[in-house]
## 1
Amino acid sequence: MPGIVLIGTQWGDEGKGKITDLLADQMDIVVRYQGGDNAGHTVIDGSQEFRFHLIPSGILYPHIACVIGNGVVINPKVLIEELDGLESRGVSTDKLLISCNAHLVMPYHLILDGARELKLGKSKIGTTHKGIGPAYADKTSRTGLRIQDMLDMKIFKKKLEIVLKEKNEILTKIYDFEPLDLDKIVTDYTGYAKRLEKHIADTSLVVNKALDESKNVFFEGAQGTLLDIDHGTYPFVTSSSPLSGGACVGVGVGPKRIDRVIGVVKAYITRVGSGPFPTELDDEVGNTMREKGGEYGTTTGRPRRCGWFDAVILRYANMINGLTEIAVTKLDVLSQFEKIKICVGYEHKGKVYDNFPPHQTIVHKCKPVYEEVGGWMEGLNNITNYDDLPKAAQEYLARIEELGGVPIKMVSVGPKRRQIIFKS
Ligand code: IMP
């Protein structure tokens, strides 16, 4: 088994945290490989609810080592708050390792993220304002500061001095902000460094050694396939690669290390932020999905846009991630509807696209081609066997499998850990 990647097949918020948490007890290591505190995973453990932004969900299991890989951008202040929050609730964070190569989110990244969005006005991306885009931009332009720079504050200060000159010019001259103070940032980051130092490691080596020893490593994707910087609905995307391939680069392992790729598929679609969404429902059905599904952002609290399930997206996600199986989440939310629609293609200028269209304009302007199936109109929360699901629900799932071309292995029917059905 040992290398398993879990990814979101839609625009994020598919319920990856719950599936990670479920499989975690069989794992030795859980690794995050991209994104930053723009992500939000909710895990319900007994009567307690935990919300994670940077720390992998496996942290709730004492036997698991959790790793934040090099591909993640880390706001150290947020990470420390998260660590302190867990410790105060009795969860040990001793087994958390942070890659020395991961990039830091700096105070100017946060300001620039918000300022750019404001300038874009109606054309804004709808980012989480966590500084993610600017941090990845600096990484790519080779002006980023890394976790390892915090291990030598002299180097950190030298690098920051050069970068901050340019950032302050941008902040003051383009955005009319006050300049940031070098010494204040150095003082703050010196404090963060002291707190985080014991967690910093060569995580690529740790993960590869574990794989050599046939340990089970779980690569936990954040966001989702259509938010991928290359393959998503650009520019309405995040700035990293949430795909299965991103796990190799974002941790430092070869592709042959990956044995299973689990795609998490919400039984309907949601999206936060701007950008095209062919099956979006701006009506009572969409509102019901939002309310029954609790579709509000974990990180920003924003209401999520909701719509019918889209098989074009699943086929695309299957193709570019090489899915070996899928986990369908929130099936119970659809218990509200007498009729359920499944999008099987996009129609644009008389042509029907079965595969995700190559041009963004088509995604913006297409009309979904729907198939309608009967609903089941009964609660699913207490069902634990696949065969006990209402016939209509089984038919809905079978159609998803067929259209996506990938087998279902898990179905989630409620937020609690036990509300899961395994399918052979
Ligand atoms: P950023 O990642 O904050 O730059 O935001 C870019 C886009 O990705 C926006 O549309 C966000 O709403 C979306 N996004 C970022 N993180 C998540 C997530 O964890 N779930 C869902 N959408 C996200």
## 2
Amino acid sequence: MHEAIARLRAEGLARIDQAATNEALEAVRLALLGRKGELTRLLRGLVDLEPAQRPAVGAALNELKLEFGAALGRRQSELAEHHTAAAVCDLTLPGLPPVVLGTAHPLPSVLEEICDIFYGMGYDRDEGPEVELEYYNFTALNFPPDHPARDLQDTFFLGTDILLRTQTSPVQVRTMERRSPPLAYVFPGRVYRNENADASHSSEFFQIEGLRVDRDISLVDLRETVAAFVGSFFGGERPTRFRPHYFPFTEPSVEVDMQCMKCGGRGCGICGQSGWLEIMGAGMVHPNVFKAVGYPDDAYTGFAFGMGIDRLAMLKYGIDDIRLFYENDLRFLRQFRGVL
Ligand code: DAH
């Protein structure tokens, strides 16, 4: 009897090991442990044995039953693993397409780069709404009621006193209403103008506004800040100059030019033969703006500036058409891979 059990054990374990599919394994299980299985048959045969032999043989058969059970379970998980591995490694499948990674768009990259330069000078950052009240976009910024910039021709009005902001300057006002000096902020964001698109105009573009207010801030502080920014952004020592200009919210107001990086000031097609490129508007904050936000008379002075991010990006990367930023032509965008 012990011989028969030993033989069944060896055979049974070998058959379990050799079962190549779940179905084959199930057939082996039935053949061994099923109602008509070989082990079951031996168990039934216990009654024919001498009573003295029964306990030992019974125990051996029960042990074998457990061993078969364990072996069947093990083989079942092997088959499951094998099945998954085979599916993953199916060499007949067509190859996967290469994973295409996108790139940051040049405008937000340049925007962040400019903000970083100002963070280095101790500036904070804030943002305001693109759908703005006429009050913040114009009135609080000292635009006279009949100023042409308020005109429908320049401004997208959404209602009688609500519009798409034409500049980031209103964020100055919103911030000064909430905070008292000293303060130094940049305000980047998207602005809108009712313009026909051409190589240098777009009906939406990005600006960044700067504002610094404290006691005794002067035009000299503005000059130094502008020079430090231009040096960082464009690299090297780059002469800048202030030209008198008019903005309602600054007095005095200036336009800032930078020596043309293409010709070094000699005059070329990029700078219209002048040797200079206009890069921002700026000036000392007008007392009427301080009045609108409730700052005390004469206690503070400040400077403000505003730049077109698109224009700065175009100058830095030699891009000659602003529309390229908004057309999402991959041939254009791919050129910035690894540059920004
Ligand atoms: N907001 C002006 C514009 O869109 C730019 C500007 C000029 C902003 C002078 C300023 C400034 O803060 O002082 O043309």
